[in-house]
Write a structure and sequence with these properties.
The complex is a heterodimer of chains A (97) and B (578). With 97 residues, chain A is mostly helical. Chain A is built from 2 helices and no strands. The longest helix of chain A has 59 residues, at 8-66. In chain B, helix 3 runs antiparallel to helix 4 and helix 9 (226-243) packs antiparallel against helix 20. Residues 565-569 and 571-578 of chain B have low confidence and may be disordered. Chain B has 20 helices and 22 strands. The N and C termini of chain B lie far apart (112 Å). Helices cover 37% and strands 22% of the residues of chain B. The chains are: A mainly alpha (97), B alpha+beta (578). Chain A binds chain B through residues 54, 57-58, 60-62, 64-65, 67-70, 87-88, 90-95, and chain B through 69-70, 73, 75-76, 156, 158-160, 162, 226-227, 230, 480-481, 553, 558-559, 563-564, 567, 569-572, 574.
């Protein structure tokens, strides 16, 4: 068994190829890891958007129920002691004429 | 020696590579067979074996009023189901249910049902559906194996009982049961999705996988105006309490478009009551009485058989037809045709009816849409009772002229009033303004109108009905500053036990529109069985006045006439911006 002797140029080429390959592999792994990380982040943000949308919808319903005319009238009459205007207190005029 | 060794190595390498390649080929082929060729079959088998297919209900569309106020909306809530583990002893499972029972306040009957289903080895058992978030959190904190959560939608009605008869209700699975919820169920519901609960070897559910995404339902915009509906409901409630009536209805519409602005009923029920399913405005039929003289007067003018100057002798206070005596509510002398309508004389109107003739009256009644459904987009509308001309008796023409021998719904009567307000054109009443879907919007057809009476006839009738509210039976319907046209009605109720009209029970009504010249709103008020005062002019006309005054103010319709000489009005002139 005789071991083949590599020239200096061959060794440099070999090492360069290995470094390049390692670099590509590291880059590939980093890229994959980063893609997955961004994927998780996107998914998390999507879920957050969805949950915020649901929250908005809940708030819309709550706003609507708080502004319901029955409730507004009850507060106006019972808490603020407001009354309906007398007929003589209403003056209408057609502003467009 | 070296060559022989290298050859041997090469041969072994080739053999090894061959077997490896062969193994790889077999592996790939098997994978293709499992994952590609047989995939649909295996997937189906797995789902079938699993027995945990689950329908995913889509988010139901929202219902808005014409100004965008939410009337009904579905929101996500949590539902709890139990999926038993195969090897778990029964006593541990029952212990879990007992823990849940305390937090979720389950009834004994419900708990027993759950236990029975566990014993039967059911793999999907509802514990409680549509619970609030706080309770769901409490259950989650127990960390009970097999107790799982699923997101469902629950219907919320933020305006509570407002317009409840129109909107209707849904069941636990969000399927429409009445009102708009029922009529537009397919539009609102969307398309159901499907999912499965994936399980591990111990049959523990570890994931819920969606097989088919649900398609959310479309939103609806109603023609109803929240404020006008509120005014109508409030005033109707006051009137019912004041008159101690059994029920009542108020329907307000835009005469030109036929759009219903408000449809109030009393008694009113909440969205979970099955009694909500009966909407008085379209389901309850009644004898219209004198409001039906609108039709008789239309037939009289349109047929050309009656002249405005024609005189009718009403001095007897009654008229005998086929042996039956029909009375006026008070004695009149000789009345002209407009006066007959203005004072709502039965004696005069019967003579007018006889002058018109059966054919003409029948043609006009059917032309106004009586005996047929109006086609309003609400479920189970009644068409009333109107007999064919062949079934008329000797007294029919007299009875029909004054609004008996016919039963109508409030919506039919409002449609008839709209014919006068629209200068002779009939419009179909509608309650859904639009479906928020672009494809349907594109197919939208223009409004179609059908002429029932001539414009001239309608104009002449309007002038008569204006007088009704000025000097006739409908004075109580006058709205200060506005010209109102309308007709009162007081009908004796039919008593099925005696087979005759009762002299004690009445239906009071008023149908009209305002302002008379350019109508913006038309309205019908029906009050059933008022106690004490019972005339339409006393019971229903004031309700018209109170509602119309508020609605016209709300719609920014300025008074046509000076309100009072004692009021000093300030005028504001806008300055042109240059």
């Amino acid at each position: 068994m005789v071991r083949k002797k590599f020239s200096k140029a061959q060794i440099i080429l070999g090492i360069s190829c290995t470094i390049l390959l390692t670099f590509f592999l590291i880059f590939y792994i980093w890229h994959q890891a980063e893609s997955i990380r961004i994927g998780y982040k996107t998914r998390q943000l999507e879920e957050e958007i969805l949950s915020l949308k649901k929250e908005i919808e809940k708030l819309e319903v709550k706003k609507s129920s708080l502004l319901s005319l029955e409730r507004v009238e009850k507060i106006a009459r019972e808490e603020l002691k407001l009354t309906s205007p007398e007929k003589k207190q209403i003056i209408s005029d057609n502003l467009d004429q | 020696m070296k060559n022989l060794y290298q050859k041997k190595i090469k041969k072994r390498t080739i053999i090894l590579t061959f077997f490896l390649a062969l193994w790889l080929c077999v592996l790939i082929s098997r994978l293709i067979q499992l994952q590609v060729i047989n995939y649909p079959r295996f997937r189906k088998e797995v789902i079938e074996q699993n027995q945990n297919k689950k329908i995913i209900n889509p988010k139901r569309g929202t219902i808005y009023d014409r100004s965008g106020t939410i009337l009904a909306k579905s929101l996500p809530v949590q539902s709890i189901f139990y999926s038993p583990l195969d090897d778990e002893p029964m006593d541990i499972q029952l212990e879990k249910i007992n823990k849940l029972r305390q937090i979720l306040h389950l009834s004994n009957k419900h708990a027993l049902t759950i236990k029975t289903r566990i014993e039967k080895n059911d793999h999907f058992i509802w514990i409680k559906r549509k619970i609030d978030l706080a309770t769901a959190e409490k259950v989650k904190n127990l960390h009970l194996n097999g107790v799982q959560f699923i997101e469902e939608n629950k219907r919320f009605y933020p305006q509570q009982k407002l317009a409840a008869h129109i909107i209707g209700r849904v069941n636990i699975d969000e399927e429409g049961q009445s009102g708009i919820e029922y009529k537009y169920n397919s539009t609102l519901q969307g398309e159901k999705g499907q999912g499965i609960v994936l399980r591990d070897a111990k049959r523990r559910g570890y994931r819920f996988q969606t097989l088919k995404e649900p398609q959310p339902g479309m939103d609806l915009v109603l023609t109803i105006d929240e404020t006008i509906q509120y005014i109508a409901e409030e005033e109707l409630q006051k009137a019912i309490h004041r008159t101690k009536a059994s029920w009542g209805t108020v329907v307000i519409s835009q005469p030109f478009s036929g759009e219903i602005l408000a449809m109030a009923n009393y008694p009113i029920f909440s969205h979970d009551s099955p009694r909500l399913d009966r909407n008085g405005a379209i389901h309850h039929t009644y004898a219209p009485g004198s409001t039906f003289k609108i039709i008789t007067a239309s037939a009289a003018i349109e047929s050309g058989r009656v002249n405005f100057k024609d005189q009718y002798d009403c001095s007897m206070g009654f008229i005998s037809i086929a042996g039956q005596r029909i009375r006026d509510h008070k004695k009149y002398e000789t009345l002209s045709f407009p006066e007959v309508i203005i004072h709502s004389s039965n004696v005069g109107t019967i003579q007018v009816g006889q002058q018109i003739g059966e054919e003409n009256l029948y043609k006009t009644i059917t032309g106004f849409g009586f005996g047929q459904r109006t086609g309003i987009d609400l479920p189970a509308e009644e068409k009333g009772i109107f007999r064919s001309i062949n079934d008329w008796t000797k007294i029919s023409i007299a009875s029909l002229s004054i609004g008996y021998e016919i039963s109508v719904t409030a919506i039919q009567m409002l449609q008839a009033v709209n014919v006068i307000a629209n200068k002779g054109v009939i419009t179909r009443p509608k309650i859904v303004k639009k479906i928020l879907d672009p494809s349907i919007e594109a197919k939208k057809s223009p409004l179609q109108f059908k002429r029932v009476i001539s414009e001239e006839t309608a104009t002449r009738l309007t002038s008569i009905f204006r007088e009704v509210t000025k000097t006739g039976t409908g004075k109580e319907a006058q709205v200060k500053g506005y010209d109102v046209a309308g007709k009162t009605g007081t009908a004796q109720k039919f008593d099925p036990s005696t087979g005759h009209y009762s002299s004690r029970a009445h239906t009071a009504s008023f149908a009209g529109f305002a302002p008379a010249e350019k109508p913006v709103i038309s309205m019908i008020i029906v009050i059933d069985d008022p106690q004490g005062q019972y005339y339409g002019g006393q019971v229903a006309a004031p309700v018209f006045r109170e509602i119309a005054a508020q609605v016209l103010r709300y719609l920014h319709i300025p008074p046509q006439k000076s309100l009072s000489e004692h009021i000093i009005t300030a005028k504001y002139w806008k300055q042109d911006k240059k």
